[in-house]
Structure formats: C-alpha cells, structure tokens
Amino acid sequence: MAEKMAMAKAINESLRRALEEDPKVLVMGEDVGKLGGVFRVTDGLQKDFGESRVIDTPLAESGIVGTAIGLALRGYRPVVEIQFDGFVFPAYDQIVTQLAKMHARSLGKVKMPVVVRIPYGGGIGAVEHHSESPEALFAHVAGLKVVSPSNASDAYWMMQQAIQSDDPVIYFEPKRRYWDKGEVDLEAIPAPLHKAQVVREGTDLTLAAYGPMVKLCQEVAAAAAEEGKSLEVLDLRSVSPLDFDAIQASVEKTRRLVVVHEAPVFLGSGAEIAARITERCFYHLEAPVLRVGGYHAPYPPARLEEEYLPDLDRVLDAVDRSLAY
C-alpha cells in the first residue's frame, strides 16, 4: 500500500483519513477551506467534507485556538492551522495558559485533544514573520506535546497520532520540506509518536536533528563518508518529550554528539539535549556536545537567510571540531 508523495500531500491525506474516520475531527484556520491553505496542504478538504467541518476562520489566531479549546471541551478533536510560524504569538496566551493546563487543572478529567499545525522554519525566501522556529518556547511549557516530522511518512503517521492524542499537540511542519517526496505506507504500524529514529548508522559521531535539519544532516553524513568518517544521524521527531534514551544509546556508541536545529542556539532545544547527555554520558563522551543553529538575532531578510541558517559547511565544521578532541 506504499505510495510516493510529497510531505504536503501526506499531511493532506492524513487529515482526510481522520475526517473520514471520526466525525468529531474538525479542521480550522485562515484560508484552509476554499483556498486549501497557502501551501495547499488542506486542498480539497472543504469541498469533500463541507464548511461545517473544514472551517475558514477570521484572521484571529487567539480566537482560532480559543474556539478549538471550547470545541474540545464539547468532545470534538479540532486541528487548527496557524498560517505561518510568526503568526502564532497572538495565540500564545491561549495555548500556554489554557490549552496546556486544562488537563492538570481538572486533575485529568478534562481532555484537550487539539492539534495546532504550524508551518515553520526558513529556506523559502519568505518575508518577515514567515520563517521563525519557535519550538523551544512551546517545549518549555508543561502540558504540551511538541513534534516535527522530517519526511512524508512521518508527516502522515505523526498527524494521525497527534489527532488521536487526548493531550494538545503542537505539530511543527517544516515548510521547506513540503515538496520533498517519500514513500508512505498507508497500512504501516507507525513508531511511537515521541520515539527517535536512527536514519543512518554510524560509529564516529552522532548528528541529532529534527524537522528540516534531518535531510541536511544526512547530506553531511554522506559528505563526511567521502573523507572516511562514519556519522550516525538520529531523527529526534519529538521536541517534547525528547527521547533521551535513544540519544544516549547512540552517543554511548559514537562517543560524540552534534545537535543541529534551525532555531537560535541560545537556549534552544539543543541546550537541553547537551546538558542532559553530558549528565548521562559523562564517562562516554570524548568531546563536548556541540550545537549548530541559528544566531541569537531576529530572523534576517530573505536575501540573507542562507547566511543565518545552518548549512553543510557549518555542520561539517562542528563535526571536525568534535573529532579533533
């Protein structure tokens, strides 16, 4: 049953399946209906399921999330789209003070099965507020699950799992990978939502990444192999919770770790990984955990984003520095 499809199409097919199988699933957001989303991720869904289940909302992110919370309280499973990463902040209050805390406040009696879809990251030459990577802000908040697929298969199955979750899931979609194609087995048994996956075996160093940077790390590993270096690539898939057991197992084998993400290095998710793995693997590490990411600066204009984002050379430089210890 495997089909080759782009990541955007895989998410569309996953939403379609959820809408077909559960009448309580709703899709909401700005331009998700008639337009099919600015990236066409929701294309055709309103036509097939109607305006009462695929809902074009006003341009009001706080209202979108607030409405989703009310719908969840009534037994629905809303999937809401924030059109671009930088637009999520008007809804930040609703997400972190209401959505994330309802379960705890009610001592587990109230479920919050809400998925917040956020296209994120750079690499597409977009204008200001369209290329942010704010995942660490949400990972810091207890009560939220934060995930990011790196390929079409994970995009399909992780969306299924996110919708089925009784806890809120922030689902970050790497927009630069929307058009990357991969095999999607529609009858597969997926890995657990928060389980990291080794996507390339190696022995000399571990590259850990998620979302848009996994493909880059695979390219880095291929380039390093030409120089006789064996790099393991670990797709974290989930930012909260993090699969520290998988990272530890890889680091105990390779004894070196470089964490790569688009978000700024300063207080990014790589900082938590570096601290925790240093604690867990102190006697295994042969070099300090290194991090490669964006700079601690506002995201630049599109003509400069290639200077801001991690690239092959910056990651290879970190690999060389680690191997030099």
From TrEMBL:
Residues 5-180 form the Transketolase-like pyrimidine-binding domain. The keyword Acyltransferase does not apply. CDD domains: TPP_PYR_E1-PDHc-beta_like (cd07036). Pfam families: Transket_pyr (PF02779), Transketolase_C (PF02780). GO terms for molecular function: magnesium ion binding; oxidoreductase activity. SUPFAM superfamilies: Thiamin diphosphate-binding fold (THDP-binding), TK C-terminal domain-like. Keywords: Oxidoreductase, Thiamine pyrophosphate. It comes from the Bacteria. InterPro entries: THDP-binding (IPR029061), Transketo_C/PFOR_II (IPR009014), Transketolase-like_Pyr-bd (IPR005475), Transketolase_C (IPR033248). Gene3D superfamilies: 3.40.50.920, 3.40.50.970. SMART domains: Transket_pyr. Its cofactor is thiamine diphosphate. This is 2-oxoisovalerate dehydrogenase subunit beta. It comes from Streptomyces filipinensis.
